[in-house]
Amino acid sequence: MSRILPNSKKYKMEKIRKITIKDKDYPKTLKQIAAPPKQIYVRGNINIEHLGIGVVGSRLPSSYGKQVTPKLTEELARSGLTIISGLALGIDALAHEAALRVGGKTIAVLGSGIDDKSIYPAVNKNLANRIVESGGALVSEYEAGTKPERYHFPARNRIIVGLSKGVVVIEAKEKSGALITSKLAVENNRDVFAVY
After folding, report:
1. 190: Cα separation from own chain's centroid
2. Strand 137-140 with 39-44, pairing
3. Angle formed at CA 29 by CA 23 and CA 33, multiple of 5 degrees
4. Bridge partner residues of 168 (DSSP)
5. What's the pTM?
6. What are phi and psi of 130, to 5 degrees?
7. Helix 63-78 to helix 91-101 angle, to the nearest 10 degrees?
8. Other CB atoms within 10 A of residue 43 CB
9. Could you give the CA distance from residue 53 to residue 51 in angstroms, rounded to a whole number?
10. Which of 48, 106, 130, 153 has its CA 20 to 30 A from that of 120?
11. Which DSSP symbol is given to 175?
12. Measured in whole angstroms, how far is the alpha carbon of residue 113 from the centre of its chain?
């Protein structure tokens, strides 16, 4: 059973719940990946009533990427898919924004804590709060107060894969986090779609 952690004012104030892999609220698709996190911290509604689809890509998209991402993501969200991404600058933020614009559900998976002071990148804090207010969620395996570290992001990417039935990769650069995500998707029997 998920719960608000009892000993933390921050968790209560920001309505952050810890869900362990043994809890009934732990997402079933996340349990199916090769190395599921033992616990996740959630702010908002993580229940994925419909299929989730990951949308990831370049932090510095081209004008084409900036044009195609909202169009594609809006259609995916309108069709009832939950948009899963990483709240990063570029394609991730464009995907979250597009889902919100059409009243779709979106979940942001972070490589930091999900409390207001830890959200990364800080410039997307308003977007993160709008995601929660719209019925979506922020998710992380890192507790409140955890600042981002380089190694957190590949770990975060496996959670994006775990919450998704497939992943759309848009304008991924060589050796990018988006390509790591696509590799993890293939390794975990998820579909991968690419936009170049």
Report:
1. 16
2. antiparallel
3. 100
4. 55, 193
5. 0.92
6. -65, -35
7. 40
8. 27
9. 7
10. 48
11. T
12. 13
Give the start-to-end residue ranges of the domains of the chain. Answer: 3-195
- For residue 170, what are the CA distances in angstroms to 62, 69, 74, 99, 151? 10, 7, 15, 16, 22
Q: How many CB atoms lie within 10 A of CB 133?
A: 10
- Nearest residue to 34 (alpha-carbon basis) of 139, 154, 156, 188: 188
DSSP states of 98-152: HHHHTT--EEEE-SS--STTT-SSGGGHHHHHHHHHTT-EEEESSPTTPPP-TTH
**Looking at the domain that runs over 3-195, which CATH code has it been given?**
3.40.50.450
Rounded CA gap, 149 and 133, in Å? 27
Q: Which residue spans within the chain are E strands per DSSP? A: 3-4, 16-20, 39-44, 52-57, 82-85, 106-109, 137-140, 166-170, 191-195
Per-residue model confidence as pLDDT tens digits over 28-64: 999 999 999 999 999 999 886 668 999 999 999 999 9
Question: Quick one: what percent of the chain has pLDDT higher than 70?
Answer: 92
How far apart (Å, rounded) are the C-alpha atoms in residues 100 and 110?
18
**CA 153 to the chain's CA centroid:** 11
